[in-house]
Amino acid sequence: MVADGHARRLAAELHAAKGEQADLRSQLAELRHALTTALRERAAAVARADELALQRDRARRRLEAARAAAGREGGGTTSRGVAGAAAAAVLAALATIVLAGGGGDDGPAEVEPARAATPRRAARDQPLAGVPGDLLRQYRLAARRHGLDWAMLAAVGELESAHGRSLLPGVRAGTTSGGGARGPAQFVDATWERFAVDAGGDGRLDPYDPADAVHAMAAFLRASGAPRDWDAALRAYNPSTPGFANRVRARAADLRARAAAARRR
């Protein structure tokens, strides 16, 4: 009788444990579903933010070009039509910026092209430790878009092609000997086809265009594990160079230190 009672208690406890296990499995399934939904929503939001950032960048470029044209024509007396067209272009660019969703992560200074450059923007855009100002802007924009460290992107750009200024084959034209890599970010064709971005806004996917190359670089690194696992991402980006990840980290640390020193001045 005692043994029977003990067996019944064990059976009851086992049944209860199985019930709890079933409940836990059900809760786990719900959590997985919620996580999947959240990840999908986040991916959609990131894609939308990417598109808005590209629209703002393109609009800013058009606005700067229009202002330059207006400045060239403003002192002359030959044509009001040209000045009028330039003004219309300025208004169109401003409208595009507003419709694209306003300022970026850096606040209003990011979309204030109609005013003189602020000290903050001037410090951000000026060449830094050998990084050209236009490339520095692209590194920062691409980093914000993909949730990465701009200094890591800049370090990759420096080590791959000296920010597109290297005279080696494949940087400005053609391909590298043997590897077939192209452009300042040194993409091979298969990888470029997957991650190409028209960041320049000219309707072309050009691996030699610095803006397109930098944003494709950021997209590749993000898809390869950055920022969670920079080592894995950098190994995927350049598996043929020993110590590439360590060299990138060292250069990025130097760039961050120089940027911090520039902000303090």
Write the layout of secondary structure elements.
Blueprint: H1 2-74, H2 80-99, H3 119-125, H4 133-146, H5 150-161, H6 189-195, H7 210-223, H8 230-237, H9 244-264
Descriptive tags:
mainly alpha; 0% strand
Q: Total number of β-strand segments?
A: 0
Alpha plus pi helix count: 9
User: Overall 3D geometry?
Assistant: elongated
Largest sheet: none
Span of the ends, CA to CA: 88 Å
Describe the structure.
With 265 residues, this protein is mainly α. 66% of the residues lie in helices and 0% in strands. It is built from nine helices and no strands. The longest helix is centred in the first third of the chain and has 73 residues. It starts with a helix and ends with a helix.
Question: Nutshell version of this structure?
Answer:
The protein is mostly helical and 265 residues long. It contains 9 helices and no strands.
